[in-house]
Amino acid sequence: MRRGIATFGLDYGRCPPWLFERMVRLARSIAILMVEYFGPEVFLERLSDPVWFQSFGTILAFDWNASGLTTTTLGALKTALFGLEKDLGIFIAGGKGKTSRKTPDQILKKAELANLSFLQAEKLTFLSRLTAKVDSALLQDNFQIYHHSFLFTKKGHWAVIQQGMNTTVKKARRYHWYSEKIIDPTLEPHQGIQSEVILPKVLNLTSKKSLANREAIIEVVSEKKTLQSHVRKLIQKTKEGEKQLTLLSLTDNEFYSHPVLQETFTPRLEKSIQNLLQKDSRSLTDVLMTENVGPKTIRALSLIAELLTGAKPSFEDPARYSFAFGGKDGIPYPVDRKTYDKTLEVIEKAIKKTNISPWEKDKALKRMENTI
Questions:
Q1: pTM for this predicted structure
Q2: Within a 10 A sphere around the Cβ of 154, how many other Cβ atoms?
Q3: Terminus-to-terminus CA distance in the chain, angstroms?
Q4: CA distance 126 to 113
């Protein structure tokens, strides 16, 4: 992973229209040049690099130290590529909040535009859901995913850039994926995780240090009677009649605390266990993608696996730092509109000198003119 320094405070403000318009225009110019000289796959790989992406966002003049760099940069790039995706060969689906839930439908539509088969499109939608689940259930760092962008090319290469928030510490962190660097999407799959905060205890089942615990989880799930028996032992009734998860008879010498403590045994958790009992799960991906399986189910399975085999999961936070500089809010200095516009002019001239077909050049330049 790449290392450096960054701050990722939650940003509740909005990008001013005059800046967003320029961000769109500059993002489009950079995308055209990158694809022309290096191809869509290289541009996709660059975006999946957390340091390169951070620098890209600050070049567009967004705040280097705010969560909005992720959402606004990707929003500007998605807008910039609209109408040019087929020509450039790079497609972006998803976004922030409610838009992120439209990702599967957007992938299917854009995959058709990319001339990908239905099976290829279905695989991409599956991977979109899987990456979101990995960063919310296998990696439990108390950052709630609220932004999910899925990018892909005509060759089927894909990248994921998603961001989570922790309202308690008022920070955000960004997760980067790139298909060509992944062997197993559930095992240390990230290009990098950018975060200002490194937490002291994070259940990290994506770590190679958790391999024994991961294997034990599959064994537990495959042994239906064993799973049922230990789930019953994990549940106790409180005085109010609520079902609660407990640490059984574990001593404080072995466990000082565990994420299962003080959790209520919800109907959703009960349903997820029933779904696992009915399903033949041969991998952690199978377990993770079972209906209703979420962070609480994974925590319970990890604990049961440790109880039975002694195989402990990793509790090390995999996040790393990164750095860049900028300033929508005037930090460290206000955006210099004159220099920004001069930069756009220079890049547009560069586009005219590229080998892109005249029709594509005219189309790209007209779209740039329309954004001002």
A1: 0.81
A2: 18
A3: 38
A4: 18
Q: Could you tell me which of 115, 72, 32, 15 has the C-alpha nearest to residue 356?
A: 32
d(CA 258, CA 252): 11
* Angle CA 159–127–109, to nearest 5: 80
Answer whether 265's CB lies under 8 Å from 243's CB.
yes
DSSP assignment of 251-319, as one string? -TTT-S--TTTT-B--HHHHHHHHHHHHS---SHHHHHTSTT--HHHHHHHHHHHHHHH--PPB-----
The residues spanned by each domain of the chain are 17-199+319-370, 208-309
**HSE, side-chain direction, 13 A CA sphere, residue 371:** 27
Q: What are 294-320's pLDDT values in tens digits?
A: 998 998 899 888 888 889 999 999 986
Residue 61 near residue 330, CB atoms below 8 Å: no
Residue 372 has pLDDT above 70, yes or no: no
